[in-house]
Design a protein that fits this description.
Alpha-Beta Plaits; Aminopeptidase; 4-stranded antiparallel sheet; 16 strands
């Protein structure tokens, strides 16, 4: 559990932080004017300001003492190296303050040099990671966008938490698990939150402890989800197959459980075995989990008669993403699986996933052909008759490992 300082102490420190931020902003303006408009009194070595040469964006977080002048010292050290501070957030702690920066850094400067410069100014536990244009959105706007997405779709809560905290893993446990927490818990790099639908949601990242401010943001999103209850988009798309049959593709949820079980009964044992990789009699056991919006998103194919003829699942598996398909025997080989898989990968890419994987039998050539039709780089792993196919959605040069 976290222990926060008294409200009066927090208020005093908050006023100090505002004063220091204003001081740092004033220093930055003075520095820019001095070097942008005043000629030097004597020739100096050629130094290219960040604005005039190639630059890259970095996210940096460092911890400083909560004393007057500590933030100003860090800002002064950054300015001395031609680094531009684009945004700044402060996270007050019981001891010290975590300052989070978005920086425009000269491209020639290595992350180790950035850490060294901040360390010399009193920063400790410094962490840096490459940023991109998405990080230019300020935190209040980002929180409002994530809250809107969460309000529209219950399946968005895990994704909202992942996008709020960057590179982290999100895991959901059902209510039946005995280790579900009775209250929200913050322990260093791990947050455990009570799931409004029962069970728990665990948020974890490897390098950076969560702050009480981040903990409060996560709890606010979970509380919003709890107040709104189960919900999902109501739209559907109607498609005409090559044979002339019309189908509708829509989101599916827990209310579709009876129709999904009925589809299972119409599928052959061979089809169910390829999908669930276990005893066919156990197939129905998985549906309640698969149709829950907490664990992912499900697409259903509905025929003109109102029956469900296919299900496609996008499952949040920690920091990985799984795709799975089941098409009823009488509707196979009509392009339905390929269309569903294309939509699943688009949803995964929109959620910021770098890759998706599918698990099937090594003899399931139809699934292999469907994955190949995506036109994406594929990786194949086979073990004991089980095939895992991974499709890469993002470029190979993903963000570099954070530096400390």
């Amino acid at each position: 559990m976290t222990h926060l300082p008294s409200s009066n102490a927090k208020a005093r420190r908050h006023r100090w932080r505002l004063d220091l931020i204003e001081l740092a902003a004033g220093f930055r303006t003075w520095w820019a004017r001095r070097h942008g408009h005043s000629p030097p009194s004597a020739p100096e070595p050629a130094a290219v300001p960040a604005a005039e040469g190639p630059a890259v964006l970095w996210r940096m977080r460092t911890t400083v003492r909560d004393t007057p002048g500590s933030l100003a010292a860090v800002c002064t050290a950054l300015a001395a190296d031609g680094i531009d501070i684009l945004t700044l957030q402060t996270h007050p702690l019981a001891e010290g303050t975590v300052d989070e920066f978005l920086l425009r850094v000269p491209a020639a400067m290595a992350p180790g040099g950035l850490v060294q410069a901040v360390g010399g100014a009193g920063g400790r536990d410094t962490w840096v990671e490459r940023a991109d244009a998405h990080d230019l959105v300020d935190t209040p706007t980002r929180m409002l966008n994530l809250a809107t997405r969460t309000a529209m779709d219950a399946a968005e809560l895990p994704l909202a938490l992942r996008q709020l905290f960057g590179r982290c893993s999100i895991r959901s446990l059902p209510a039946a698990r005995a280790d579900a927490p009775h209250e929200d818990v913050l322990e260093g790099t791990v947050m455990r939150l009570r799931d409004p639908s029962g069970g728990s949601i665990t948020v974890e990242r490897a390098y950076l402890p969560f702050t009480p401010t981040e903990f409060a943001r996560a709890r606010a999103l979970v509380e919003l989800d709890a107040q709104l209850g189960v919900r999902m988009p109501a739209g559907r798309d109607t498609l005409t197959l090559a044979e002339g049959d019309e189908i509708a593709i829509r989101r599916a949820g827990p209310e579709d459980l009876p129709a999904a079980r009925a589809m299972h009964r119409r599928c052959s044992p061979a089809t169910l075995a390829k999908r669930y990789h276990g005893p066919v009699a156990d197939a129905d056991r998985y549906l309640e989990h698969l149709l829950s919006p907490r664990f992912g998103q499900t697409l259903a194919v509905e025929t003109a008669s109102g029956r469900i003829a296919a299900l496609a699942h996008l499952l949040w598996d920690g920091d990985e993403t799984e795709v799975a398909l089941l098409v009823e025997d009488g509707w196979q080989h009509q392009g339905i699986g390929a269309e569903l898989l294309r939509r699943l990968t688009a949803l995964a890419a929109e959620a910021g996933c770098g890759s998706v994987y599918a698990v099937t039998q090594a003899t399931n050539t139809a699934m292999v052909a469907t994955m190949r039709r995506l036109g994406l780089p594929l990786d194949y792993q086979v073990e004991d008759g089980t095939l895992v196919i991974t499709a890469t959605l993002a470029p190979a040069d993903a963000p570099a490992r954070p530096h400390r």
